[in-house]
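Per reviewer request, we include the raw input and output of the structure prediction for the construct analysed in the revised manuscript.
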Amino acid sequence: MTITRRSILKSMMAGGALAGLGLPKLTLGADTEREAHPVVLVSLGNVPRFAQGAGRAGAYGEYILGRHIPELSKVQTLFATQRGKRLVGLMNDGAYALFAELARDAGARQWVEGRHTEQGEQTRHALQSVAGFHGAAEPLAAALATPDNSFAITEVPLGAADTLGMRTGDWTTYGFTSYRVNTVPTPGNIWLHLAGVDLAQGCEALDVDPQQAELLRCWRSYAPSVTEGGAGWQAALGQTLAGLAARGAQNHVPCISQAFIHRCQLTGEGAAHHSYVSFVMEA
């Protein structure tokens, strides 16, 4: 895929939107419950770093569904015994396709879905969330923003706000320059954070006009939340998602579409070496 007209980032953001039509469907209603929730880690036992990160955020147990693909009986037991609890997990995309169908049949509500690929030394993350569970991109970007990491992250919340004065963190300490981009002719805005990539490249990656970009005024008094990124993106993601699943009131702020590009090679074509899907659900 070349960057011209149909770039990887634009595809990531479109892919996130299409994922909302998948199984189970993302819950459209806002989460109005503000108390803390118990969190259960769901896995196939093959993502130890994700599990380690989720444990830091308070996931109190791991429910293993099988070795390579989810076993029907174990999935049925999971949803029969864990009602009302938040489930977080990371699986390869093939295993997740099966798990998602079983989750839908069990009546699970899905709050967050993420698509993650590794391509050489680069990682790409396309996140979609419902109101009350957005904000996964910020701690993930903060954790991964080191000189050795190359990544692109997009986040597309359902019902994203389009407010000019909403709070955003000061990303200059992480090496990012932030912009607000009007996505004409499509209504809406994207907050675009760039490090090691210039504005023209970042806008071309999203197939938007750089003349529609303006510097984003950040709240100096607000620092983006940070997870521990030393163990890699899986650990940072596990801590981020388990933290979002456990918290109540902290998640209830306006959300907007965002993209982070950090020293990422945006041109050329190549196959992903590994592909995963992450999720937050309520059993």
